[in-house]
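Students often ask what a 'structure token' actually looks like in practice. Rather than answer in the abstract, let us consider Transketolase, a protein of 362 residues. Its sequence is given first.
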Amino acid sequence: AHPELHAELTRRIAGQLPSGWEELLPRYTPADKAVATRKLSEIVINALAPVIPELVGGSADLTGSNLTRWKGAVDFQPEPTGLGDYAGRYLRFGVREHGMAAICNGMAAYGAVVPFASTFLNFISYAAGASRLSALSRLRVLYIMTHDSIGLGEDGPTHQPIETMAMLRATPNYLNFRPADGNEVSGAYMAALQHADRPSVLSLTRQNLPQLEGSSVEQTLKGGYELAVFGSSARARDLIIVGTGSETSLAVEAAKLLRDEHGMVVKVVSMPCLELFAQQPCDYRKSVLTPGVPAVSVEALSTFGWHKYVHLPIGIDSFGASGPYQQLYEKFGLTPAAIAAKAVKLVKYYKHQAVPELDLVL
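Now compare that with the structural description of the same chain:
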């Protein structure tokens, strides 16, 4: 009697998304203005929520900071309260991160919805038991985590994640994204929604980031890719700088310094998702992280785990500090000049001995 409703119900139960949703993901050029990736995420949610009606979720009392409520959203609330109704798709979870993740697990396990949960990245630690079960149970839950580094500034070390990403990367079956700009935010959402059997964490910035030359929605699906080369393309590369998230633009500026002041040829690699990169064929991974070329990584988080991919990880292996984020990046040596200085020492070191081969075979 209701074939259209039947088709819609069976589509959702099967976990299939509506056709054409990928075409609505925004794309950017370097001419577009710098924007925080949490804001770029909000733009994506506003584009997708009207066409993916099974997208349901909310924030643990940080909606105004996470930017997860789309225009026209209705809160899931009893109608007599005047706050919403039970047809609403936006959930006010309250300050209960573990409960939020558990609720999303329940919805994903029941089926016919794609749930998302949101808070500051550091506070996914409060949800670790339930969010780990998202991965263990192979559930498509989107964790939209903002304020993803010392870039949140004055909130201080209690709010600044350091070890959090290392914990998430160590958890089997997770996809962990630190997108560097608008194209990578769109790519992260594309990958997260396409993988119906694993949860994803989208780690997003408070501070504005530039739209990068060479960034790509499609390349984000590979987890890591060559963003740009600075210096003569006819010469062998002297160095590879791998950046994630907000530090990718710093890697670009450091590469320009090394080219202009030291005559180096520097490849910049954007690595929004280590898990997807690890799934790529060995030849592809070696084309990105060229054997025999010294490599450094730059990430405003713990360096734990990076030695598999680079010869020198640059990051933060202490707790953060409180202050304007620009001052914090300087304090922790995450400026283009500081990165370039460490890179020069690395390149000089390997001029006198063989560059160790990285563990990219398996």
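One point worth highlighting: Residues 1 and 7 are 12 Å apart (CA to CA). Ask yourself how you might have guessed this from the sequence alone, and why that guess would often be unreliable.
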